[in-house]
Amino acid sequence: MSATELPLIGDYSTPSTELNGARIGVITFPGTLDDRDAARAIRLTGAEAVSLWHADHDLQNVDAVVIPGGFSYGDYLRAGAIARFAPMMSNIIDAANSDAKLPVLGICNGFQILTESHLLPGSMVKNDHLKFLCRDQVLRVENNTTAWTNQYARGEEITIVLKNQDGQYVADEKTLDALEAEGRVAFSYVGWNPNGSRRNIAGITNAAGNVVGLMPHPEHAVEAGFGPDHTGTDGLGFFTSVLTHLVGGQK
Question: Is 219 an active-site residue?
Answer without folding.
Answer: yes
